Amino acid sequence: MKNKNYDFSGYATKNNLRCSDGRTIRKDAFKEMDGEIVPLVWHHRHEDPSNVLGHVLLENRDDGVYAYGTFNDSDAGKNAKLLVEHGDITGLSIYANQLKQNGGDVLHGTIREVSLVLAGANPGAYIDCPVVEHADNETFDAVIYTGLTFDDDMTHADTEEKKDIKKESKQVSDSKEKTVKDVFDEFTEEQKKVVYFLMAEYGKQLGDKDFKPNEKKNENSSEKIEHSDIYGGEIMKTNVFDQSATPKNALSHADMETIFRDGKKCGSLKEAVAEHMESGVLMHDDESTATYGIENIDYLFPDYKSLNVPPEYIKRDTTWVNKVMNAVHHTPFSRIKSVFADITADEARAKGYLKGNLKKDEVFSLLKRTTDPQTVYKRQRMDRDDIIDITDFDVVRWIKSEMRLMLDEEIARAVLIGDGRLSSDDDKISESHVRSIVNDAELYTIKVNINDSTYTKLVAADDTDYSARAKKIRAAAVTGRIDYKGSGEPVLFTTEEELNNFLLADDGFGRPLYPDDAAVARALRVREIITVPVLEDATTDDSEPIVGVIVNMKDYNIGADKGGEVNLFDDFDIDYNQQKYLIETRISGALVKPKSAIVIVDTSSETTSDDADEG
Predict the structure, then answer these.
(1) How far is CA 173 from its chain centroid?
(2) What is the tens place of the pLDDT at every residue in 427-476?
(3) Which of the four pLDDT bands, split at 50, 70 and 90, describes residue 612?
(4) Selection from 200, 185, 189 nearest residue 294 by Cα
(5) Which stretch of DSSP H or E encloses residue 172?
(6) Cβ–Cβ under 8 Å, residues 72 and 84
(7) 3-class DSSP assignment, residue 547
(8) Measured between alpha carbons, how far is 208 from 201 in angstroms, rounded to an integer?
(9) Residue 146 confidence (pLDDT) above 90
(10) How many CA within 13 A on the CB side of residue 318?
């Protein structure tokens, strides 16, 4: 170079030097950069102009690319110049893009900047490729470290005395490279916390879960750090500040520096760690590839936070349960007797009298029904240790609320349609004690079938399926009211599907026949429509699919003697250290008015016994 007005010089890259990722920079890969001037940057932090320290003139040579560096007059440039002059910084690295390769050989590229780097931090050559772009010809960006040192030719003070001072300074610098402890002391608190965690994980691999790496020893002591100094036992297998050996599954300083640098680039230390765990390859002092990994890396991430404490129940809609239980009639006794006099027969009618004839006595029948109580219960248990260990919420109160919820639902189901269990099942709520409305005697429950010809003939040929079914259900419900003798305005218990049939029914021109629930209720002559999930696929004891139940729940009586109301009992099993809970009630239930309920069924999808025999 003719121009000697530069502050230092050295090789930015070397040809035919195999990097840790398998790539090799070949001769004249950066030939087009000969004579070009590019920025001189501190440690590739070119996103901030304050990190630009000056510029370098590039010279392509047979053995690599040589750089002549000149510092600017900024504070950072002056400081960097002083560090180079003193021999504190002796390493160069390049950032290049548009790199093209054939196999593992890098054949072409463009150098965008040259950086000063800490000598010895990344021994040997390697290429760090943060970006890979796929185009017609695959290109990629890379930071290329060679691990070479440069010559600090300070031509502005080039006296023999100065050269001797520089030579002596460089020898001292070479002999006093930074130890791992020196570098560790420069870490931020966040970086130290990550290192503490990694050391703790390594300590666990040695066989002690209570290993605490951040417990300090006397830094000035020359004693050996023994395993017992920290947590007792055998001699510690690895000294964290010993550079002579790198334990398996450990991160070197170069690895950690790379992770922290990438974390700053992408803004997330978590993502940087995860990315390097996936790649799993970095360069170590022996210039050979080494795979590393961190077991249970997710321990570094924050704990999961529960959004629903206590846990929410996955359950059926139980809104209807309260409407049943709050509406029924209650008595403080459980043995119920209903007595009725049937005065509908002709014999009970008043009679005309003719003079001289015999007057006849009135004749009518008395009807009587009795219902006895049955115990209904739900039982639960928990280990006392579990109760104590669950501290996020009151688990006992949570369990008790679930027990009451399920008890009420079971009673309401038994009242409306029966509990559905076989009569031979020991857990069945007997219908002789809690009589279901849909299966009650004809005296109490009116049954209408929408498949009756009286209702099916109302369906027009051009009716949609929704309109046709809505017409049949409405006709059956309204006709059933002829014989209804219940109290006041009843309600309709049905399913969401049956309600939707009404809401989707139209007049043939796309206009809804029933725009809302209230319109449906008025059409069916009921006060309210209540959807009941347990009615879906429910049948009577005669296997007839249930469409709905029309009833005023005031006509249904639930009785319980004193002490038979809902009670909750706690008991502790000292032998098994278990807390046991029991909720129970002893009740009877039955309709107490004749003709007080209408059950709408649909037998259109049924197969008769004769058809079954023929098949």
Answers:
(1) 54
(2) 999 999 999 999 999 989 999 999 998 888 888 888 899 999 999 999 99
(3) very low
(4) 200
(5) helix 160-175
(6) no
(7) strand
(8) 10
(9) no
(10) 18
Whether residue 87 contacts residue 172, with contact meaning beta carbons closer than 8 Å, is answered with: yes
CA distance 80 to 83: 5
Contact 10, 92 (CB under 8 A): yes
* 10 Cβ contact partners less than 8 Å away, ≥ 6 residues apart: 66, 67, 69, 92, 148, 149, 150, 151
Pairwise CA distance, residues 573 & 583, whole Å: 17
Q: Report d(CA 171, CA 177) in Å as an integer.
A: 11
Return d(Cα 118, Cα 88) in angstroms, integer: 8
**In terms of DSSP bridges, do strands 556-559 and 329-331 run parallel, antiparallel, or are they unpaired?**
parallel
DSSP letters spanning 55-107: EEEEEEETTEEEEEEEE-SSHHHHHHHHHHHHTS--EEEEEEEEEEEETTEEE
Convert 515-528 to b/e letters by CB count within 10 Å (16 or more is b): eeeeebbebbbbee
Please count the residues of the chain: 615
Do residues 143 and 127 touch, judged by C-beta distance below 8 A?
Answer: yes
Nearest C-alpha neighbor of 552 from the set 327, 381, 340: 327
Whole-number Cα distances in Å, 333 to 434, 555, 565, 585: 14, 16, 10, 13
Q: At what angle do helices 189-205 and 253-266 cross, to 10 degrees?
A: 130
| Residue-level pLDDT at 360 | 62
CB contact set of 235 (below 8 Å; sequence gap of 6+): 224, 226, 227, 228
- All domains in the chain, ordered by first residue: 8-175 (no CATH), 206-300 (no CATH), 374-562+589-609 (3.30.2320.10)
**Spatial contact of 208 and 233, defined as CB atoms under 8 Å apart:** yes
Dist CA 150 CA 8 (whole Å) = 7
Q: Residue 409 — φ and ψ, nearest 5°?
A: -65, -40
**Cβ 30 vs Cβ 65: under 8 Å:** yes
The CA-CA-CA angle for residues 588, 593, 596, to 5°, reads 110
Instruction: Answer for the pair 230, 215: CB distance below 8 angstroms, yes or no.
Output: yes
Instruction: Report pLDDT for 497.
Output: 94
Question: From the CA atom positions of the chain, what is the Rg in Å?
Answer: 45
- Which tokens hold the place of 87? 């021999």
Token reading at 344? 């509908």
Candidates 430, 371, 428, 418; CA nearest to 591 is 371
- The Cα 240–Cα 569 span in angstroms is 60
DSSP collapsed to 3 states, 316-376:
CCCHHHHHHHCCCEEECCCCEEEEEEECCCHHHCCCCCCCCCCCCCCCCEEEEEEECCEEE
Measure the CA–CA gap between 219 and 449, rounded to whole angstroms.
93
Residues 79, 72 contacting (CB under 8 angstroms): no
- Please check whether residue 265 is in contact with residue 95, taking contact to mean a CB–CB distance below 8 angstroms: no
pLDDT, residue 221, reads 43
Distant-in-sequence, close-in-space partners of 72: CB < 8 Å, separation ≥ 6 = 52, 53, 54, 55
State yes or no: pLDDT of 204 exceeds 70.
no
- Helical spans, DSSP H, in 357-460: 384-389, 395-416, 453-456
Distance of alpha carbon 610 from alpha carbon 195, whole angstroms: 81
